[in-house]
Amino acid sequence: MNAKIALTPGDGIGPEVVNEARLVLEAVAQRHGHKFNFSEHLLGGCAIDAKGTAMPDETLAACQAADAVLLGAVGGPKWDDPQAAVRPEQGLLAIRKALGLYANVRPVRPYPSLAKLSPLKPERVAGVDFVVIRELTGGLYFGTPKGRTMTPEGERAVDTLIYTDWEIRRIVRLAFQLAQKRRKFVTSVDKANVLESSRLWRKVAIEVGREFPDVKLEHQLVDSCAMRLITHAPQFDVIVTENMFGDILTDEAAVLAGSLGVLPSASLGAGKHGLYEPIHGSAPDIAGKGIANPVGTILSVALLLRHSLGLETEAVEVEAAVNLALEEGKHTADLGTKTPLSTTQMGEAIRERLAHGIIHRQHD
Ligand code: IPM
Ligand code: MG
């Protein structure tokens, strides 16, 4: 197949991990006779430096024209001035919004070989396999009014948590559809004991639930869900929640996997178009050192192959190669090892196993 893939490596470790992920895509293309056309574009802090805006028009146009976007990470101390008029994160939010990617899919399935890295007891992590569906283009991140004003009482800041029923319906429906292919259990997370927007969320979730009689629906308050992610994580199947709750809960969920560095994400909208990125940030403290873990980005490539290109076999191969590399003790520094691999060595280890991964697994 022919596909156009737009790369937005971004800032910090973004370019390092995206480079390894691109090499994986090239290896997949070679193995299966696909043709992937890559183009690279500025987004985030690097775009602010070069163009004065976090999401240049050229970047948006290229991302719109591509079949899928692979993103590294944006942000860093250089652009962190709270007074700054433009911020790298604006680029990320703007591109999600402009591409209509309202659903952020974050699977959490810890690798048994990394279980010892989690600060949780092994029995709390064993069997954990859930997906968080985070609403991505609404809520506090985008609601208006938003901003700061001077008032006679002092300086005031406002953010608005706003949802309209159709925004809730489409994301909750997606969660149910996914649950139908899994263990048929949806946990809808809200703060309905306090927030009006959450009471609407819950009402809509119940309505959508009636369309899916084969899927069980439970509601959890976000504070209690945060606790249960630590105490009862194996119980979850599909978690669906609004933008900011999802942001917070997915960083928490990453603890179960042992390292932020190994978790991928897909941001999807109505069609097959999608944006794929690791859930970790730009890690400015280790940027340029060649030690970042490329696994989260490489697993994002697997999601890209699956969701945007419909290449399930290729996606499974990438996931199997990552699994095999990790099981064989191929670890970057964040995965706690005496002999850590560099970013490029880890990428190489995964690409080497791409060809042999599945064969190997059959002999296990
Ligand atoms: C994420 C990040 C972003 C978010 C930031 C960088 C704007 O934390 O993708 O989870 O809050 O969505
Ligand atoms: Mg986050």
CATH superfamily of the largest domain: Isopropylmalate Dehydrogenase
Shape: globular
Question: What helical percentage do the residues reach?
Answer: 40-55%
Largest sheet: 10 strands, mixed
Overall CATH architecture of the largest domain: 3-Layer(aba) Sandwich
Reported by name, the CATH topology of the largest domain is Isopropylmalate Dehydrogenase
Radius of gyration: 20 Å
Spans of at least 5 consecutive residues whose pLDDT stays below 50 are: 359-364
Arithmetic mean pLDDT: 95
| Level-1 CATH class name of the largest domain | Alpha Beta
Structural class computed from helices and strand pairing: alpha/beta
Question: How would you portray this structure in words?
Answer:
This protein is α/β, with parallel strands linked by helices and 364 residues long. The protein has 2 domains: 1-106 and 261-364, Isopropylmalate Dehydrogenase; 119-257, 3-Layer(aba) Sandwich (Isopropylmalate Dehydrogenase), CATH 3.40.718. It has 12 helices and 12 strands. The chain has helices at 14-32, 45-51, 57-65, 88-98, 122-125, 165-180, 196-210, 222-231, 243-254, 295-307, 312-327, 343-363, and strands spanning 2-10, 35-40, 68-73, 103-108, 130-135, 143-151, 154-160, 185-190, 216-221, 238-241, 264-268, 274-278. The strands form 2 sheets. Strands 2-1-3-12-11-4-5-10-8-9 form a 10-stranded mixed sheet, with helices on both faces. The protein binds 3-isopropylmalic acid and magnesium ion. Magnesium ion (MG) binds at residues 247, 251.
